[in-house]
Write a structure and sequence with these properties.
Layout lengths: L12 E2 L2 E2 H37 L7 H12 L4 H16 L2 H32 L6 H19 L1 H4 L9 H30 L1 H21 L8 H8 L11 H24 L5 H9 E2 L1 E2 L2 E2 L8 H22 L6 H25 L6 E2 H29 L5 H23 L2 H34 L4
Parallel strand pairs: 3-6
Antiparallel strand pairs: 1-2, 4-5
Helix pairs in contact: 1-3, 1-7, 1-8, 3-5, 3-15, 4-5, 4-8, 7-8, 7-12, 10-14, 10-15, 10-16, 12-14, 13-14, 13-16, 14-15
Length: 459
């Protein structure tokens, strides 16, 4: 058997992996379908429909209070700037609540119940989006539900494998690629329904997707192993759980926090895909395909589609580098990722400069831009998760993973703040700002990587 030790019966396998991986794969795929389907419509829904309805007297629960609070900080805002703020707040809090959802699961209700509660709350949120007056309560349900769901579905992948099972890394790669299938199909279904039939049809389809995911999870329960928390309680003795942190532990914590701070800028730029880049795709791009006008929300299909195709190629490239002892360290890869992402915005700058006034850019050029953004993501996002597990003190891995999620919280909010300047700066100048910030983040990470490579073995 070698290193192959799994937490479930060996007969319970499919394609060389536990059947539970397929259950979690499909559950997360449908959850991502619902999340990205709703995200594809969110900014367009606010700017093209909801805010105009509010200006004409429609009532939305809590909206006037939220607008007053935001404008108390930033001053009077246009509808585009306000939609950017709300988008940033929503996507930011989606990455804050998992910190608390993980703690509640670990201490009180466990991972499996948390997934049920999270999925149920998110399904309610998506369905409430079909009622315009409940727009903000719907976002609240989605934020809280995601807090229970997100940290507790992916951790169960690891529980399907023993500590020394050499399939674990490949399982997470399959999981990472597979969940993007949901993100590919969601703009096709939810985006098309929302733009071509009615906004509420698109949001309703996202809610149905979440319910399908819950049904898959329920029917596949018998294929899932013990939760990580249950295994920890069985396998870990109490005597070493509260040992004080060492000087080396503190070095590791500081290193992780510094890297997370820099990645805030990366996520702020990256999340423009659902914000200002979606507006650019809607207003400045030609979406004609053999005489048929594609919905502009299909723009958000490019990223997950490219992840599916590029991840295996990048993995093989890193393997080729490894055999020649030239594979970069984790932080170096993350710095390279920021630089690669910047190339996408450089391409957009060139296009905006060359484009005659009033002429629209072909959608294939946006695809080329997102190619670089996605390649940069592959170099940073999964590598960041690996970096956390490499450098964290053993007793604080989960806590430091929460810190990593917090970087996405601040990054997503930063995306909303930066998007407020899109109208004022114009396309060309705004893309230039994104390029400068990408290069700045790359330089900082590459400088940090030299220090960390000397300090921490294998980083």
């Amino acid at each position: 058997m070698g290193n192959r030790h799994v937490a479930i019966k060996s007969s319970e396998e499919m394609w060389g992996h536990p059947k539970g991986l397929s259950v979690l794969f499909l559950t997360e795929m449908w959850e991502r379908f619902s999340y990205y389907g709703m995200r594809a419509l969110l900014v367009l829904y606010m700017t093209k429909y909801l805010f105009e309805r509010i200006d004409n007297g429609a009532q939305v629960v809590g909206f006037s209070t939220l607008r007053h609070l935001i404008e108390a900080v930033y001053g009077p805002l246009t509808n585009q700037a306000l939609s950017s703020q709300i988008y940033g707040l929503y996507t930011a809090f989606v990455y804050l609540t998992p910190v608390f959802g993980g703690l509640i699961a670990d201490k009180y209700i466990g991972q499996k119940k948390s997934v049920y509660w999270g999925g149920f709350l998110m399904a309610i949120g998506h369905l409430l989006m079909a009622v315009e007056s409940f727009f903000l309560p719907a976002l609240l349900f989605l934020i809280v539900g995601n807090g229970f769901f997100k940290p507790n579905i992916s951790t169960q992948v690891g529980s399907l494998y023993g500590a020394t099972d050499d399939r674990r890394d490949r399982a997470y790669l399959i999981f990472y690629m597979g969940v993007n299938l949901g993100a590919i199909f969601s703009p096709l279904v939810c985006g098309t329904l929302g733009q071509k039939v009615g906004w509420h049809w698109g949001f309703g389809a996202a809610g149905i997707g979440m319910l399908i995911g819950l049904a898959v999870y329920y029917m596949g329960q018998r294929h899932l192993g013990q939760s990580p928390h249950e295994k920890f309680e069985e396998e870990t003795t109490v005597e070493h759980r509260h040992d004080p942190l060492t000087a080396d532990d503190y070095k590791r914590i500081v290193a992780l926090i510094l890297v997370c701070v820099v990645t805030i800028v990366f996520w702020g730029i990256y999340e423009q895909q659902g914000n200002t880049l979606q507006l650019l795709a809607d207003e400045r791009a030609n979406w004609n395909l053999f005489g048929w006008e594609m919905p502009s929300t299909w723009f958000q299909m490019f990223n997950p589609l490219l992840i599916i195709f590029l991840t295996p190629l990048v993995s093989r490239f890193w393997g080729w580098q490894s055999k020649r002892h030239k594979e970069p360290g984790s932080v170096t890869k993350m710095g390279i990722g920021c630089a690669i992402m910047g190339l996408g915005f450089l391409l957009l700058m060139i296009l905006m400069k060359a484009l005659p006034a009033g002429e629209k850019v072909h959608w294939l050029w946006l695809f080329a831009c997102i190619f670089f953004v996605t390649l940069g993501e592959i170099y940073l996002s999964p590598i960041g998760l690996s970096f956390v597990t490499k450098v964290s003190p053993a007793k604080l891995v989960s806590t430091m993973m929460g810190v990593w999620l917090l970087s996405s919280f601040f990054g997503n909010y930063l995306a909303g703040v930066m998007g407020m300047f899109y109208e004022k700066m114009g396309d060309f100048n705004f893309m230039g700002l994104m390029l400068i910030l990408s290069v700045f983040s790359s330089v900082i990470l590459l400088l940090m990587s030299r220090v960390m490579h000397r300090t921490f073995k294998g980083v």
